[in-house]
Amino acid sequence: MTGLVLLLPSWRSSAAAPGSESPEATFSALERRSGGRLGVAVLDARSGNTFDRTEPTLNLVGPGEVRDTTTPAAMLGLMRAILLGKALSETSRRQVETWLVEAKIGADRIPAGLPAGWRVGHKTGTGPRGETNDVAVAWPAEQGSPVLIASYYAGSDAPLAQRSSVLAEVGRVVAKYVGAKEP
């Protein structure tokens, strides 16, 4: 979850929007600016996620290994605190929201399954062993109350497009659950 560090408001002015360039490049630039582990440590304390290493080794997690990992449930808690709660100032929360909504990478994942007219912001994650993830906040056109989605898919050697389509299906299931019309 390399984009998580972008949630810290003190780096807002130097951070590129997640999805506008490689998340690893953005994360590495932020690490250099902060002098290392500061951003990750702050997020650890707030979210319960575990991060022991920095980019790019952060993405190398062996089978059964739990360091530098998170769960969909932990990610939903973090998203709730950051996007809907009081973890950030209003200005910082809106900046994070803007970055997520403007993300270009991964439009074929959760956003592809959500109905037209929904406003959606998301952050993808892709690992070297077929891990294909997406977390999103979506505002249904019909009701306006945000919906948080975290979907992690692993253990497949299918091509990336096929794995991404699984996450698009998650978007369709969520939309159906909240009573939206088919995309």
Number of strands: 3
Q: pLDDT under 50 segments (min length 5)? A: 1-24, 34-46
Using only C-alpha atoms, the radius of gyration works out to 16 Å
Q: Give the number of domains.
A: 2
Average pLDDT across residues? 75
As for the CATH topology of the largest domain, it is: Beta-lactamase
The first-level CATH class of the largest domain is given as Alpha Beta
User: What is the overall number of helices?
Assistant: 6
* Distance linking N and C termini: 28 Å
For the record, what is the CATH homologous superfamily label of the largest domain? Answer: DD-peptidase/beta-lactamase superfamily
Q: What fraction strand? A: 5-15%
* Helix-and-strand structural type: alpha+beta
List keywords for this structure.
183 residues, alpha+beta, Beta-lactamase, Double Stranded RNA Binding Domain, three-stranded antiparallel sheet, 6 helices
Structure write-up:
With 183 residues, the chain is an alpha+beta fold. It folds into two domains: 1-103, Beta-lactamase (3-Layer(aba) Sandwich), CATH 3.40.710; 106-183, Double Stranded RNA Binding Domain, CATH 3.30.160. The chain has six helices and three strands, in the order αααααβββα.
Topology:
Elements: H1 23-34, H2 38-47, H3 72-84, H4 90-101, H5 110-113, E1 119-126, E2 132-139, E3 147-153, H6 160-177
